[in-house]
Amino acid sequence: MSAPESAEHRLTVLGAGVMGVSIAALASGHGIPVTLVDIDEAKLDRARTALPQQIRLAQLVGALPRDRVAGTLVTGTAVAAAAGSTAVVEAITENAEQKSKVLAEVAAVVPAGTPLITNTSAIPIAELAAAVPHPGLLIGTHFMNPAYVIRNVEVIRGPRTADSTVDAVAGLLSAVDRHPIVVRDAPGFVTSRLLHPMLNAAALVVQRGTATVEQVDALMQGCLGHATGPLRTADLIGLDNLVDSLNVLYEHTGDAGCQPCDLLLRKVRDGHLGRKSGRGFYEYGGAVA
């Protein structure tokens, strides 16, 4: 039974949504103790059930080690629970004001020198750094969903991120068998800047009646090698998360291709958010945590 690198880490994840739980499952599945914080007790209840299920599923498909004792999970409703962490991952909604508020709160309770990792799909790290007392400790990540399956992690170095913070996060990612790819700060970084306008364009093709959802995905899979198809990918991301990211990109770049199309906006208004709600561009068996 092995837990070499993981033994030195104690991780707090802020936000018990789909992404936060996925990151928590990745860490716990590698033997790292995790504190999961959310103001919504109902979300924490769902997470306590979902997390061990995700770990077991990931172990069955070989995405997490089977010989590792899962790290303990502690939940809480206040950022004070992060005290004693060796690193904090903020994974709340894609809203700069809310992220800034939470990052400022957690910076006040963690030990000096603790890396603050904001998991964001589009918000520039430089913008969030203004909220924390030591901007050198702030760094961005963009985990893909599910985090315990996809090995590459986009790591975003802000203009003031310290070398020691980059090294610490690289060490944490190594302990959970992820491969960091460090990029410079910009709206949407690399993955979202390329992917999200394409997903928006795919939805617009359906909105205009050029092709069905299934036809769009089949053509992108069979002709262009897209693994799952753009609209099934949008469902996995969460259509509300996609719209939030597109709005950030549009606000920062003015690129008309980043303005969410009416079909996406309508689905979000109707609560059809993708896999997590049981219905998006496709229908699924039921909502997930």
Write the layout of secondary structure elements.
Elements: E1 11-14, H1 18-29, E2 34-37, H2 41-60, E3 73-76, E4 87-90, H3 96-107, E5 116-119, H4 125-129, E6 138-142, E7 152-157, H5 163-175, E8 179-184, H6 191-207, H7 213-224, H8 230-237, H9 239-253, H10 262-269
Parallel strand pairs: 1-2, 1-4, 2-3, 4-5, 5-6, 7-8
Antiparallel strand pairs: 6-7
Helix pairs in contact: 1-2, 6-8, 6-9
InterPro entries: 3-OHacyl-CoA_DH, 3-OHacyl-CoA_DH_NAD-bd, 3HC_DH_C, 6-PGluconate_DH-like_C_sf, 6PGD_dom2, NAD(P)-bd_dom_sf
Protein name: 3-hydroxybutyryl-CoA dehydrogenase
Pathway: Lipid metabolism; butanoate metabolism
Question: How would you portray this structure in words?
Answer:
The chain is an alpha/beta fold and 289 residues long. The chain has 2 domains: 180 residues, NAD(P)-binding Rossmann-like Domain (Rossmann fold, 3-Layer(aba) Sandwich), CATH 3.40.50.720; 87 residues, N-(1-d-carboxylethyl)-l-norvaline Dehydrogenase, domain 2 (Orthogonal Bundle), CATH 1.10.1040. It is 42% helix and 13% strand. Strands 3-2-1-4-5-6-7-8 form an 8-stranded mixed sheet, sandwiched between helices. α1 packs across α2 and α6 crosses α9. The radius of gyration is 19 Å and the shape is globular. It starts with 10 loop residues before the first strand and ends in a 20-residue tail after the last helix. The mean pLDDT is 95.
